[in-house]
Amino acid sequence: MPSPTRRTRPPHAALLTATVLAVVSLAVSGCAAGPGAAITASAASTVPTTPDATPPAPTPDPVDWAECGPDLDCATVEVPLEYAEPDGEQVALSVVRHRATDPDRRIGSLFVNPGGPGVPASEMVRSIDPSGETGPFSADIVSRFDVVGMDPRGVGESDAVRCLTDEQRAEQAAEDRDPTIPGGKPFGQLLKDARTFTKGCATHQDRAFLASMSTDNVARDLDQVRAALGEEQVTFYGASYGTVVGPMYATLFPERVRQMVIDAPVDTDLWQNDPLRLLDDVAKSNEETLDLWFETCRAEGTEACAFGDGDPEAAFDTLIADLEEKPLQVPPVEGLTPGGTLDGAMTLEGVRAAAGVRTLWPQLAAGLLAAQQGNGTFLHFMVANLTVAPFGGPFATLQEPHTAVRCADWPALRNLGEHRAAAREIADRGERLGSRAAFSALNCAFWPAANEDRYTGELDGAGAPPVLVVGGEVDNVSPYHWAQAMTERLEDSVLLTRTDVGHTSYRTSGPCIDEAVDAALVDGVLPDDGTVCEAVPAGTTRPPSAPAGE
């Protein structure tokens, strides 16, 4: 599909100040302050007016970079634990920068957040391929920007939250799960797990630190890093939960935004105000994605998709019941899976992860067929390595920081009856994958660190430049109507739609999406609102060697 027609972003009155125009002019001409430059007088003295009246933090010291790899620099930036007490206890944040490969044409810093919550941005930056052939960003982006990954407080190298011992984590992972019970286990066992988890958080973590892990603080931290870099404005790309961070930053610091792209948006209203409904939407999206896989498997025929012999739904239900009655023992495979037991509920987890990635659809068909024949290696690999919780990243390493951010952001969820009612609603729909969302917020019912001042204002980005919102028509994590809601909520935003299946679209869905995102980030040129890009490749269950049908 050809590149979408684009329109040039109109100037915003909020941006038309002498200081900002001077900085933008210097950046475009290639004369902007170089990497690691001292903070400019205007950046240090201009204090944004924020909607929540939090007192401004003192300007941080310039970043002291140390080279830590090819084109990579690493540093720590100290920020206030509580912005209401900016001169009080400080938190050290890990920051990694990939230097622009064409410094003469450098625009500025591109801040990135890959989501989770709990996925380290530092890992995303370290995975950059300067050639653009692989990796999270195109060669044009990498050449024009210093790509900056700040691990949010409590995530990755910024003192990642840990609540369970390795033994406790392994014990919970090894327990048998009953897929007929919402949540995968009997309610009493789920309560026991939640109490063990939250007691561990209270024992091993400072409660004030846990309470501070909210997205509004992440946005304030990002602005502190911006100031330490000496940047007047930031360009921002956020995916999945990163689409909560981006609008939060644009709402608190609209004049600090140069350009912003958010990919696979979260509904920020649900995130802030109705998390159980948000998780219910995730359950529906999981099911919609699996249903499309079944439909595609049937339509492509048994030569392409042998699993189920033309009736994949019936074969799938039988396989899950058989595995729950008699789990498979999976031997360890070096570099692939540590081995273990594959029961019905674990298979559902593997299927949920694979169904949401269209390039894995042929492998999913092969994995189910192999499990039917007694080999559970592939599905066990999916659970051990790719299962997410539920907005991105390996579950075993991200569960603790993921939970801490959610519980800091969300309203109190102390009423166990509300959790049970939400789980019953999912169970009553008879969904195959509903157990992933049912009771997944139960840890917040016992969370030991209440966040008394979480930000609850609408995240509308008023005063920031127009935001490019990229949504997928079928997304097993971020349903399409979330992207539509985000576009309506953010002032002057533009919706770019990707067809077919997948969670996030940039760098996974073909040149139509990639060129539109690059144009927005580099030039501030957005596609027409409502532009649709067809995903390349499209979802298929057909293995590469299978003959094409009529």
Q: What does the model show?
A:
This protein has 20 helices and 14 strands. 40% of the residues lie in helices and 14% in strands. It has 550 residues and is α/β, with parallel strands linked by helices. The N terminus is likely disordered. Helix 11 packs parallel to helix 17. It starts with 5 loop residues before the first strand and ends in a 17-residue tail after the last strand. Keywords: Hydrolase, Signal.
Task: Please state the structural category.
Answer: alpha/beta
CATH architecture of the domain at 6-159 and 212-266 and 455-464: 3-Layer(aba) Sandwich
Q: Roughly what percent helix?
A: 40-55%
List the strand order in the largest sheet: 2-3-4-6-5-7-8-11-12-14
Tell me the radius of gyration: 23 Å
Give the CA-CA distance, first to last residue.
22 Å
Looking at how many chains there are and whether they match, the oligomeric state comes to: single chain
- The CATH topology of the domain at 6-159 and 212-266 and 455-464 comes to Rossmann fold
Query: So how many helices?
Result: 20
Uncertain regions spanning at least 5 consecutive residues: 1-49, 388-395
Shape: globular
Q: Main sheet?
A: 10 strands, mixed
How large a portion of the residues is in β-strands, by DSSP E? 5-15%
- CATH domain class of the domain at 6-159 and 212-266 and 455-464: Alpha Beta
The counted number of beta strands is 14
Protein name: Pimeloyl-ACP methyl ester carboxylesterase
Biased composition (Low complexity): 43-52
Signal peptide: 1-32
GO molecular function, one term: hydrolase activity
